Amino acid sequence: MKASIVLLPGDGIGPEITQQAKRVLEAIGDRFGHEFTFQSQLIGGIAIDETGDPLPEATIQACRDSDAILLGAVGGPKWDDPSAKTRPEAGLLKIRKELGLFANLRPIKLFNQLIDASPLRREIIEGTDILFLRELTGGIYFGESSRTGSGPDETASQAMVYSVREVERIVRLAAQAAKGRGNRLTSVDKANVLEPSRLWRQTAARVMAEEFPEVQYDVVLVDAMAMHLINRPSDFDVVVTGNMFGDILTDEASMLPGSLGMLPSASLGSGGPGLYEPIHGSAPDIAGKGIANPLATILAAAMLLRHSLNAETEAAAIEKAVADVLAAGLRTADIARGGPSVSTDAMGDAVVDQIKQ
Ligand code: NAI
Ligand code: MG
C-alpha cells in the first residue's frame, strides 16, 4: 500500500513525540512492505510565529490532499497573551471544521503493566478497554445562542440541535467499530429530559435494529454513566454520545488509567483524511528536555493505520509493541512512579526494535 501522511508537529513537545511516531510508522512500512510518504506542515503557535496564521492555507491544502494526518499538540505560554489577535487552538478547531471531522474517537485502555497508576482500585479498573465516540460538530456547542433583557431579568440561552442524519452517521461509525471489538455498543443520552436526546435515542435504536442486529446494544442516561465509569468501567466496550456529554465523559474517563501520556485519539469524517493525535497538550513544562512520553502519539499512529488505512494487522502490531516495551519495564518519567526512566528517543527506539523483530 502507498499512503501520504501529513505531520503537524505543532508546539512544545509536539515535534519530539511526532518524530518518534513517524519512526514507528516507517518501521511498520518496512516490515509490512508499505510505502508511506511524510510531509510536515505548520499549525498552532509556530505557524503564528512564521506566518501570522495558526492554520496557513498551505497546511489545509496538504491535509486535504493526504490520506491521514498525525498531529502533536499546539499552544503554550508564549501565545497566551489575552490581547493577541489569534491563538494556537484556533488552528486546531479550524482544521477539524475544514475537514468535516464529526466523530472524535477516544480509546480508554488500561495497560496492565501500569495498573498501579490508576486512581481506582485494581479490581475495579482491571480489564478496562472502552472506545468512546463523541459527536464533534453538532449539539449544544454549535447551537444558536442569545442574550436578552437586563439586570436580574437578563437571560441567556443556547440551543441543543441534532438531526437524524447527524445521529445516524455517528451511530453507524460506532457500531462498525464495535463489530471490530467486543461487539457491544452503549448509547448515552438524557432522553428523560431533553428532546434532542429523544430523537438521538429513537434514531440510534432504529439504525441498530435495521443495520446492526448482531451488535449487542443498550442505552444509559448520562448522569448514570458518570457513576458507572467510576464504579464498573470494565463493563463497557464502545460508547457513543453527543458533543457535550462526550466532552465531559471522555475527560472523566481519561483520568481512569492514570497515565495521560498513554492516551491517543482520532477525529474522523466521512471518507476524507482522519486526524490523529495524543489527548494531552504541548506540555511546555518539559518541552525540549527529551523526557516526554511518545506512546500516546505512537498509539495515535496505530489508530491512523486502523481507521484511515484499513490496516488492522499493522495497528495491532504497534499496540503489541507498546505493551511489550512496557512489559520489559521501560518507562518514561511520567509513568515511572519515581523509578528509573528512559528518554523520549529511547522509548521510540524500543518500540521500533519490537516492530522490527
Ligand atoms: P498538558 O497535557 O500539556 O500537560 C499536563 C501535564 O501532563 C504537564 O505536567 C505535562 O508535563 C504532562 N504531560 C502531558 N503530556 C505528556 C507526555 N506526553 N509525557 C510526559 N508528560 C506529559 O496540559 P496543559 O499543561 O494544561 O496545557 C499545556 C498547553 O497545551 C496549553 O497551551 C494548552 O492550551 C495546550 N493543549 C493543547 C492540546 C492539543 O493540542 N490538543 C490539548 C490540551 C492542551
Ligand atoms: Mg474537554
Automatic annotation (TrEMBL):
GO terms for biological process: L-leucine biosynthetic process. It catalyses: (2R,3S)-3-isopropylmalate + NAD(+) = 4-methyl-2-oxopentanoate + CO2 + NADH. It is an enzyme of class 1 (oxidoreductase). Binds 1 Mg(2+) or Mn(2+) ion per subunit. Mg(2+) binds at residues 223, 247, 251. InterPro entries: IsoCit/isopropylmalate_DH_CS (IPR019818), IsoPropMal-DH-like_dom (IPR024084), Isopropylmalate_DH (IPR004429). NAD(+) binds at residues 76-89, 281-293. Its EC number is 1.1.1.85. This is 3-isopropylmalate dehydrogenase. HAMAP family: LeuB_type1 (MF_01033). It is found in: Cytoplasm. PANTHER family: 3-ISOPROPYLMALATE DEHYDROGENASE. Homodimer. Substrate binds at residues 96, 106, 134, 223. The record marks 141, 190 as: Important for catalysis. The gene is leuB. Residues 4-351 form the Isopropylmalate dehydrogenase-like domain. Pfam families: Iso_dh. Its cofactor is Mn(2+); Mg(2+). Pathway: Amino-acid biosynthesis; L-leucine biosynthesis; L-leucine from 3-methyl-2-oxobutanoate: step 3/4. GO terms for molecular function: 3-isopropylmalate dehydrogenase activity; magnesium ion binding; NAD binding. GO terms for cellular component: cytosol. Catalyzes the oxidation of 3-carboxy-2-hydroxy-4-methylpentanoate (3-isopropylmalate) to 3-carboxy-4-methyl-2-oxopentanoate. The product decarboxylates to 4-methyl-2 oxopentanoate. Keywords: Amino-acid biosynthesis, Branched-chain amino acid biosynthesis, Cytoplasm, Leucine biosynthesis, Magnesium, Manganese, Metal-binding, NAD, Oxidoreductase. Belongs to the isocitrate and isopropylmalate dehydrogenases family. LeuB type 1 subfamily.
